[in-house]
Amino acid sequence: MAAAGKLSVSVVAIMVFIATISSSVSADPDMLQDVCVADLNNAVKMNGFACKASFSASDFFFAGLAMPMPTNNLLGSTVTAANVMQIPGLNTLGVSMARIDFGPGGLNPPHTHPRATEIIFVLYGELDVGFITTANVLVSMTIKQGDVFTFPKGLVHFQINNGKGPAAAIAAFNSQNPGVQAIAATLFAAMPPVSDSVLSKAFQISYQEVRLVMMADSYFNKIQIHRDDAVSRVDLHVVLKALALELREARLDVAVAAAAAFHRMWI
Fold it and tell me: Residue 246 in contact with residue 258, Cβ under 8 Å?
């Protein structure tokens, strides 16, 4: 009887150990059936999505990563996601992908994926990539066509195309929905906004400079600049130069007026 009791304790201990290991290596909960195609229209809130009553092959298919996407925006890059929102069949499977296209000088700005590790494969071009550890150590290098680089889960990271031609990469994640938080946008474009006092003290800048950054983000995130339009490039250059000057001189009222005029031109 005593031996049976010890065996039961050992079995429980082993089961707890296995459960701990399983949860530590998987970003998403384990699936409990063959498939659970996401019912994206279901109003029930849960960790993931409710399963559809029926499904087809199209629930597991997505053609959106095949072709390069335009990069005619202020960052010069475009991310095309292939997660559970585009592929409902990924629900409970714990994987997803994305394509990142870069124009010359294009940047995928510093951001984090709170629910996944990321690994990227360079399709063509060269990228300067890096992540920052919690000890504030930058780990970076230049990668080229065919190379692979990994960004650990939750750490701030970035990619930039410092070359003269376009570049593209495919990213894979160990989560059906890795999530993304762009650092600048998260802090300066949150709604309701983060208080001026928090941002001013955190970045050691004035309240006026905080408001100018917020204003610039609000206006420019709504604007799609067509780089093949010479007039667009000239207008953008003039306004950005004016904003930079006003920022240095802390003349917020003039900078806001300049951005508002630009807003009226493009929105």
Answer: yes
Local confidence pLDDT in tens for the 267 residues of the chain: 555 455 455 545 545 444 444 444 556 777 778 999 999 999 887 888 999 999 999 999 999 999 999 998 888 999 999 999 999 999 999 999 999 999 999 999 999 999 999 999 999 999 999 999 999 999 999 999 999 999 999 999 999 999 999 999 999 999 999 999 999 888 888 889 999 999 999 988 888 778 777 776 665 554 444 444 444 444 555 555 555 555 555 455 555 555 555 444 444
φ, ψ for residue 232 (rounded to 5)? Answer: -60, -45
CA 160 to CA 227: how far, in whole Å?
A: 18
What DSSP string runs through 134-149? TT--EEEEEEETT-EE
Please name the amino acid found at residue 84.
V
| The three-state (H, E, C) secondary structure of 36-103, written as one string | CCECCCCCCCECECCECCCCCHHHHCCCCCCCCCCCCCCCCEEEEEECCCCCHHHCCCCCEEEEEEEC
Residue 51, strand partner residues: 38
Which helix (DSSP H) or strand (DSSP E) does residue 7 occupy?
Answer: helix 2-25
- Alpha-carbon gap, residue 86 to 98, rounded angstroms: 11
Cα 227 to chain centroid distance, Å, stands at 23
State both tokens at 9: 């304790």
> Which residues on neighbouring strands pair with residue 126, listed in sequence order?
144
